Amino acid sequence: MKKHFRIPLAAATAVGVLSFGFYAVSEDSAFFKINKSLQIFGEVFRQISMYYVDDIDPEKFVEAGIDGMMGYLDPYTVYIPENEREEVDILTTGVYGGLGITVSNVDSMVTIVGITEGYTADKAGLRVGDRIYAIDSAIVLRMNTDRLQNFTRGKPGTLLTMKVIRQGLQDTLQFSLARQEITIKNVSYSGVLDNGVGYIRLDRFSRGASAEVREALENIRYNSNLHGIILDLRDNPGGLLDAAVSISEIFVPTNSLVVSTRGKTAESEKKYISRTNPMEPNLPLAVLINGRSASASEIVAGAIQDLDRGILVGETSFGKGLVQTIMSLPYNSNLKITTARYYTPSGRCIQKIDYNNRREGIFTQSSDALQKYTTAHGRPVYESNGILPDTIVSLSRSSTFVDALISRNMLFNFATEFASQQRSLPEDFTVSKDVMRQFGSFLKRNSFSYSSSALSKLRELKQLAREEHYPEHSVSQIAKLEEMFASEQERELERNQAVVAQLLEKEIFTRFYPRSRVIAQTLNNDVQVQTAAALIRDNSVYHAMIAPTTTGISNE
Predict the structure, then answer these.
(1) Could you confirm whether 89 is annotated as catalytic?
(2) CB-CB neighbours of 110 under 10 Å
(3) Which is the catalytic residue, given 188, 206, 246, 295?
(4) Does domain 95-183 have CATH number 3.40.920.10?
(5) Per annotation, catalytic residue among 130, 203, 306, 526
């Protein structure tokens, strides 16, 4: 473990020269290297400030230097200037002043992709798919979404004027909107499935997440005779460590180790123990995870798995086992810095990427050899590549054709166009053959084309054969195969009809319903949810999956 050094800062001169005083040290010591590096940095800053041909903004110049240093570290260690502090406050309080919209750059235009039910944007009639053209006097259509927050966020009660471009209308629509205090919901939906299994969808771990999960569970238990609970952490990027521990306490036995952290300093070494009586200690539990479940999601999933409190279903998690601490800097700025790694109750760190190990500038996985640990009941679990579910259920979406539809916003844009032609959806709406025909026509009108991996390889092979002067009849044989594969591509929509219809249905629902109802409408067709529910309902299978084989958590 590296030693921790305290560095006394002496002063900064008017032209920005930093001088640092240390006791006399040898040239190979860490103190000497720190002193030498800071002196060089200060002198570079001084000379560029004085002699560079153009004027330099000192603040932006230093920020660029800080960004360079951050780039050498993991992506979670970042400098937060004063004008970006709001993101820290939102995480810790779960509240911000704004409109209740989520935006993204779709086709290089600022586009509303989500609307929070019950707040300003929802009440005013803004829709998913609207392009934001202007806010007050500023044209923002092509603006980076990070910068857009400077226009939409602000003190509750303050007003703004927004102009949007809506599909099917020639003129822009103008809205006068008052910013509100927006409370971010952590639980986006909870209810009971048709098979008597409770379901809770947790989107993030900001302040109040534990209280929301407890309330959702209480409502489910009050209204139903449950067979078990599904806690859905898919696509949940994480958040506060304390929130993850509090949510784990709802299910795991009192005095259980939930997670531990270890870093460079003594204060970074902590053990987080469940201190409260669990709200639901016995009901069968399944936790859903996927490749975008990270950080706090993995803490909860790891604790549930290691303590054999429930089963995990879905796909391997993201693999973020690093802990960040927010430290105050001068002038209301902050440094979010990775200070420790976290370890699940069995002792494993599930950090996937080793940011301290580069090969030709590329970060590598922590380890190719997976170290084995054991759960409370002696089941084997592994370290370093994220958390592996007990039952792997992969979603059958990964085809070049479907990926191209998603990446080029074909599904999103068709849903927006389709919604512009409908006043409402019938209660029994599904993506029918007629809707699929409309989608096929939409693809042709928008000149959608793509090359499958097989077709791309054939074209490369044909080009290579010509460069290598293969006989013409050999090249023509490859060309015939190319034509055959190109013809087959035209039937890709038909071949992928089931997957495309499911994705389209969800996109269309988001144009008409709040997020909670969209989730409810799609659960019956969600193979991961239905697999988890089936495992819970089959009592013998569920208990066999977490059955004890040895006593106590140990590691090898």
Answers:
(1) no
(2) 22
(3) 295
(4) no
(5) 306
